[in-house]
Amino acid sequence: MITRNGNLLEVRDLRTYFHTEDGTVKAVDGVTFNLRPGETLGIVGESGSGKSVTNLSIVRLIQSPPGQIVSGEVVFDGRDILRLPEAEVRRIRGRRIAMIFQDPMTSLNPFMKISRQLMEMTRLHLGYSKAQAYAHAVKMLETVGIPDAPRRVDGFPHEFSGGMRQRVMIAMALSCQPELLIADEPSSALDVTIQAQILELIKTLKQETGTSVILVTHDLGVVAGMTDDLIVMYAGKIFEQAPTRELFAVPGNPYTKGLLRSVPDPTSARGPLYQISGLPPDVAHLPPGCPFAPRCDRAEEICSKEFPPLVEVNQDHHSLCHFAKEVYAQSVARSSPSIGMRDKPELIPHPSAGKK
Amino acid sequence: MLRFIIRRLIITIPTILVVITITWGLIRLAPGNFYTSEKALPAAIERNIRDKYGLDRPWYEQYLKTMGQILRFDFGTSLKYEGQSVNEIIARSLPVSATVGILAYLLALIVGITVGSIAAIKQNSKWDYASMTLAMLGISIPNFVLGPILVLFFSMTLYWLPPSRWDGFPSKSVILPVITLSALYMAYIARLTRAGMLEVLRSDYIRTARSKGLSETQVVIRHALRGGLLPVVSYTGPALAFLLTGTVVVERLFVLPGLGNYFIQASLNRDEPLILGIVAFISITLLTMNLLVDIAYGYLDPRIRH
Fold first, then answer.
1. C-alpha angle B237-B240-B241 in degrees, rounded to nearest 5
2. Which residues in chain A are closer than 8 Å to B211, comparing Cβ atoms?
3. In this complex, do A94 and B215 lie within 8 Å of one another by their Cβ atoms?
4. In this predicted structure, what is the pLDDT of residue A270?
């Protein structure tokens, strides 16, 4: 595979806008990141922060109108997907970049047998015969742990539970052995126990196949144990970007700090759970300064006037904030160096631990 | 499934009896009789007629006698078309109505679904606006206006097609009635298809289908059409029943010897056996079509199959 700078995927200054009657919604506004082969990247953010739109833009599945990818580059395997002819993009979709969506209840075609939905992938991309595709579909269902796969393969989606349907989605996504799997909130619509199973399954399959994964979620607990790098998005922009461990240990952005503080910590936290005040901004009418300023604890006058710079606070660690260096230094001071180096980021004490 | 069908068939029988009872009551409630005309009949003759047709018996006796006959599918003889049984008249006129009806139905389905799908796929395009404006016209122009306009244009101006007359199928005489009859249904199906398709095209499973790398045509035909056409299916059953059993206005307009035309004549003539016969026949057809739609629905949508 041809990779540029050893990256499987390079997203450069991606901007996806939606033209609505209410004005232009800058759903994704200047997103840049790299993904190396075999790596798992987490994208975290509140609803409407642009995480899903970023991923749909990568495979050019933005409905136009009203959506439009205004500018940017999505270089996959050395070629810019945004400038390929539609037929070429279709050969990448499903075959090389596969997707899993949030709601397994509605993401499978309710009118079509599971077998047909799975066979469609291999028949289309790998030119399998009906028999080959059918056998492969059964094999894939077995791989994702569906009991009694040879019989259930001819069932309809409504005959499966939510967790089982998500397994079917994963089986479908992985049927052509894609190089990149985009999982858009794969566990958010499921019960907590099922969530863990699905995430564990993605993790295992990823290790077996070496697929790169982009994991989109609003749940920090999900990304902690699964990702190598992390992107925090807010109002269509990347607010912070760092290796997962580093980001959890020494966040360099007030927004990230707020997110981390609002995760309940059963071992030490007492009293009311921290919550970021206010609501996510209306992306159609963003103020001139930092979009997070109205909700930020650290905000000063400059924040509501000038758009913040993207500061490199450490190697591979960027933060979009006027006071990025200061916030980062605070985080470093609070966490003892030994903790920052520990293997399990989940076990790092809460930044607010003991204070409440 | 079989139990469902049997249950539905059992409900059908009382429904038809109620429809016939209401029709019978309405005929009896209307003033006058089938033998009334401008000239009053001599009393002796009137008594004879009333005696012959049992009109002097108590109403419940007459009602039970009529119902008994209908339950045996014996609708009796027409009071105006002498010597012809109601069954004969239906057997003669139904093929005319059914021919025009089936052709109108097929035309409405093919054109309606095609136009509606394209309008949905190209939402907010010129094509979408143009076809939906036409559909709106199709729904709002009544067929007794559309028919004469078509006749005026194609028969009286261009001399291409006959203005009325029935030459059987296939012949030129079929074209205008079929178009006039199907316009409303065509327009309605186009709108239903568009609405259904728009909803499905926005759904999550269509996004999944696109993310698999299928072409837009494959996405629409394999994944979207089935769900998008469900609202159309529930409409087409009753529509087919109405089209098959003749439409009063269009048959009248083009002077077609179909069921609808006979129905008007029978009503004007107060021809009770013929009215009841045609009403019974139409209700049975309508209920059967509804049942077929429900069966088809279960087949199309696996979620409600049980």
1. 90
2. 59, 61, 93-94, 98-99, 101
3. no
4. 66
Residue of A55, A100, A111 to mutate for B, most B C-beta atoms under 10 A = A111
- Angle CA A115–A118–A123, to nearest 5: 110
How many other CB atoms are found less than 10 A from the CB of residue B98?
18
Tens-digit pLDDT profile for residues A118-167: 899 888 888 888 898 999 899 888 888 888 888 888 989 898 888 888 88
Please name the residue that has the structure tokens 């002819």: A85
Domains of chain B by residue range: 96-268
A47 Cβ neighbours under 8 A, 6+ residues apart? A218, A280
Q: How confident is the model at residue A210 (pLDDT cuts 50, 70, 90)?
A: confident
User: Is the whole model's pTM more than 0.90, yes or no?
Assistant: no
Contacts of B227 (CB under 8 A, 6+ apart): A109, A110, A111, B196, B200, B203
For residue A120, list chain B residues with Cβ-Cβ distance below 8 A. Answer: 212, 214, 222
Provide φ and ψ at A129, rounded to 5°.
Answer: -75, 170
Contact present, A243 and A316 (Cβ < 8 Å):
yes
Please, which contacts does B113-118 make with residues 24 or more away whose CB atoms are closer than 8 Å?
B113/B189, B113/B190, B113/B193, B113/B229, B113/B232, B115/B186, B115/B190, B115/B193, B116/B189, B116/B190, B116/B191, B116/B192, B116/B193, B116/B194, B116/B196, B116/B197, B116/B232, B117/B193, B117/B194, B117/B197, B117/B220, B117/B225, B117/B228
- Both tokens assigned to B56: 């002097």
Count of other CB atoms within 10 angstroms of residue A174: 22
Strand partners, A79: A76
Report the alpha-carbon distance of residue B85 to residue B69 in Å, rounded: 13
Domain B96-268 in CATH: superfamily?
Answer: MetI-like (1.10.3720.10)
Residue A5: how many other CB atoms lie within 10 Å: 8
Smallest Cβ–Cβ distance between B213 and the set A109, A111, A124 belongs to: A124
Q: Is the minimum CB–CB distance between B209 and chain A shorter than 8 Å?
A: yes
Q: What is the dihedral of CA B126, A82, A56, A227, to 10 degrees?
A: 180
What structural domains and CATH numbers belong to chain A? Answer: 9-227 (3.40.50.300), 255-347 (no CATH)
Range B82-101 average pLDDT: 89
Task: Please give the sequence-ordered ranges of beta strands (E in DSSP) within B1-57, or none if there are none.
Answer: none
CB contact under 8 A, B302 and A156: yes
CA–CA dist A28, A70 (Å, integer): 10
pLDDT single digits (tens) A271-300: 777 778 777 777 777 878 888 888 888 778
CA angle A74, A80, A81 (to 5 degrees): 75
Report whether A232 contacts A238 (CB < 8 A).
Answer: yes
Pick the closest to residue A125 from A78, A91, A152, A153 (CA basis).
Answer: A91
Q: Which residues of B touch A111 (CB under 8 A)?
A: 226-227, 300-302
pLDDT band at B246 (very low <50, low <70, confident <90, very high): low
Chain-centre distance for alpha carbon A121: 23
Closest to A151 (Cα-Cα) out of A118, A121, A115, A117: A115
Q: Are A54 and A43 in contact (CB under 8 A)?
A: yes
Per-residue model confidence as pLDDT tens digits over B157-180 = 888 888 878 887 788 888 899 999
